TrEMBL record:
Gene Ontology cellular component annotations, sorted alphabetically: plasma membrane; protein-containing complex
PROSITE patterns, A to Z: ABC_TRANSPORTER_1, ABC_TRANSPORTER_2
UniProt-listed InterPro entries: AAA+_ATPase, ABC_SmlMolc_Importer, ABC_transporter-like_ATP-bd, ABC_transporter-like_CS, Mo/tungstate-bd_C_term_dom, P-loop_NTPase
Biological source species: Limibacillus halophilus
Keywords (A to Z) from UniProt: ATP-binding, Nucleotide-binding, Transport
An annotated Gene Ontology molecular function: ATP binding
Record-linked SUPFAM superfamilies: MOP-like, P-loop containing nucleoside triphosphate hydrolases
GO biological process: putrescine transport
KW Transport (keyword) present: yes
Domain spans labelled ABC transporter: 4-234
The UniProt record lists the keyword GTP-binding: no
Name the record gives this protein: ABC-type Fe3+/spermidine/putrescine transport system ATPase subunit
Length: 352
């Protein structure tokens, strides 16, 4: 296993500036997830690491060696693609052996390593089957074995679970995570699924317009997004517009509009009449019924099993709360409510 250091990386596709000065450090044995909307640069960054595209500026160091000018085969990287990319005319064993044959590994060693790799992913008994004779999950395991059998310095995974159904995808998330930890291989995982990134990664890198928006552990990303954009992208909470208002005796508070009462004091570095953005998780919102036409109107319920997602209209959008089924019964669709949250559970950021 090796560390990965990316410094000031710039990539252009013609006139399009795809990567804009990306800096990223990944320790030995770490599992990093790259997330972001389509076109943000996450796959371009993965392909730059692999050597499939050629950044004009910056450095990519694997184990301390700058590999930016090396060809893909000289970087000793394992790659797993979304659509498996297995050779249909080859058996599972032959697919796994392919990379070693290209590296001129002795035949006897190839056989031993193929057997170990297929056993490692639970497919030893399917060595002689061709891809069309395997399920989607089995094909993905063959692709994973093929990437790992060459003993790569870095394992690169480009949305490898995207083609699987939900149940199999969740199963493969667990298997892949456990296998990566058992082998200790450094891994970079591209996914468009924020929940998948949260479940699997040691750290998450959120990308936006070719730049790194935020890097942190899943807990940091979830509970303390650094920007309103990152908070909205994670999609697990509410991003609300507020204004710092002067109150009695010189005290200030954040006004979030009618129907919201979070008892937020003035954040450091702000002044009266300054706009701010407040982020609060949906599970930290309480909805309390109120009389008459005051407050917010509940507009929908969505049953999620352990929780009910309750939406209430808020200014020009909605505010979302995750309530227990019992709590949700007390705020039926059409009811008027006050949204409350503990100040300690809210994060105040600069306005967009």
């Amino acid at each position: 296993m090796s560390s990965l250091e990316i410094n000031n990386l710039h990539l252009w596709y013609g006139a399009f500036h795809a990567l804009r000065g990306v800096d990223l450090s990944i320790g030995e044995g770490d599992f990093l997830a790259l997330v972001g909307p389509s076109g943000c640069g996450k796959t371009s960054l993965l392909r730059s690491i692999a050597g499939f595209v050629h950044p004009r500026k910056g450095s990519i160091k694997i184990g301390g060696q700058d590999v930016l000018r090396l060809k893909p085969r000289e970087r000793n990287l394992g790659m797993v693609f979304q659509h498996f990319a297995l050779f249909p005319h080859m058996t599972a064993a032959e697919n796994v052996a392919f990379g070693m044959k290209c590296r001129a590994v002795p035949g006897s060693e190839i056989n031993d390593r193929v057997k170990r790799a297929l056993d490692m992913v639970g497919l030893g008994q399917f060595a002689d089957r061709k891809p069309r004779q395997l399920s989607g999950g089995q094909q993905q395991r063959v692709a994973l074995a093929r990437a790992l059998v060459i003993e790569p310095n870095i394992l690169l995974l480009d949305e490898p679970l995207g083609a699987l159904d939900k149940k199999l995808r969740i199963q493969m998330q667990t298997e892949l995570q456990l296998l990566q930890k058992r082998l200790g291989v450094t891994a970079v995982f591209v996914t468009h699924d924020q929940e998948e990134a949260m479940a699997m990664a040691d750290r998450i890198a959120i990308m936006r317009d070719g730049e790194l928006e935020q890097l942190g552990t899943p807990k940091e990303i979830f509970t303390a997004p650094r920007t309103p954009w990152a908070a909205e992208f994670i999609g697990s909470g509410n991003v609300l517009k507020g204004r710092v208002l002067a109150g009695e005796n010189g005290k200030t508070a954040i006004d979030l509009g009618a129907g919201c009462d979070f008892s937020l004091g003035q954040p450091p570095g702000t002044g009266a009449d300054e706009d701010v953005t407040v982020f609060v998780q949906a599970e930290d919102i309480r909805l309390e019924p109120t009389a008459g036409t005051e407050g917010l109107e509940v507009i929908s319920h969505r049953y999620l099993g352990l929780y009910v997602e309750v939406m209430a209209n808020y200014r020009d959008g909605v505010i979302k709360a995750l309530l227990s089924p019992g709590e949700a019964e007390g705020v039926a669709v059409g009811a008027r409510v006050i949204a409350r949250a503990d100040a300690a559970r809210c994060k105040v950021m600069e306005a967009r």
